[in-house]
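Throughout our pipeline, every protein is held as a single compact record rather than as scattered files. This encoding replaces a full spatial description with a residue-level series of whole-number codes. The remainder of this section carries one protein's record, kept here as part of the documentation.
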Amino acid sequence: MLRKAVLQERDALSAAVRLSKSRAIAGHGASALAESAASKNVSGFYPIRSEADVRLLLSLLEDAGARLSLPAVVDRQTIVFRRYRFGETLVPGGFGTFAPGEIAEVVDPDILLMPLSVFDYHGNRIGYGAGHYDRAIERLHMLGKKPLLVGVAFDLQGVPDVPAEPHDVPLDAIITESGVQWFSEPKSGV
């Protein structure tokens, strides 16, 4: 019910308001992440529906030396992160999004920009219900990798508390149009 209510509110934002807020997100995100993202693998996402548009942020991070990737849905359970250079042609990537084609290199991100439906100010999040990011994070952890988990959303998606389950991995930070809030100390080297 919480997801549905927040998404209805987000959907009510006009395209012009979403664009303005997305530009502010890009500015805050670039200021917070550009230095640490240089020469790192940064996964973004192609926006769907009324999500914040991170394409400008991805362009700024690439200009700062980041290597980009985007998630691609492999099957109902799995996403992989495929290498991407800003402006390259994308193909349908599942769930209405776009991703690099199957020939693109699969990479493990150091910084993971994540879409979400709801977040709280403790770092908890609610996705869209398919669990793709949860399983991808679990796979990365099993490989010994601990990417910086950064949620990207509009302020209106924030609530006082999100019911978290034991398997949920909290965000390290959230970027909204108001700025960046860190929930953990930035990881060294990221």
Summary: The mean pLDDT is 93.
